[in-house]
Amino acid sequence: MPIMTVEPKTIDMEPNKTYILGSNCLEEPSLYNYVIPDMVVLNLPKESKKGDTLEIYATSIFKIQPQKGIQILFFATHTENSKQGCIISCSRGQWIKLLCTSDNTEWMHVDSIGNFEII
Fold this sequence. Notes:
Elements: E1 4-5, E2 10-12, E3 17-21, E4 34-36, E5 40-43, E6 53-58, E7 62-65, E8 71-74, E9 77-78, E10 87-89, E11 94-102, E12 106-113, E13 116-118
Parallel strand pairs: 1-4, 2-5, 3-4, 3-6, 5-7, 8-12
Antiparallel strand pairs: 6-11, 7-10, 8-9, 10-13, 11-12
């Protein structure tokens, strides 16, 4: 899979992709889709199907922003749908995997390493 370096601070994610935030964590280039420097806002895909996944590896701080009407479940809590909630990484060196559990409306935290704030 080719690697694309992306410069903008806001990225519209695509289902079934792996994102790398910060260039220092690139170890096996053939496994990844994007190398994204610095702090960015990652928008969840506008369209997703049940079973789609997203993975984010980060050496930088990031924010996962759902589109309007999409919610992220994170253990016993969830993003605030009415307040356009989000997930924010609280430190560097983190990883998170999300799974779409309902077409176009819901993503669920599957696994992670690091500290995250759920809003």
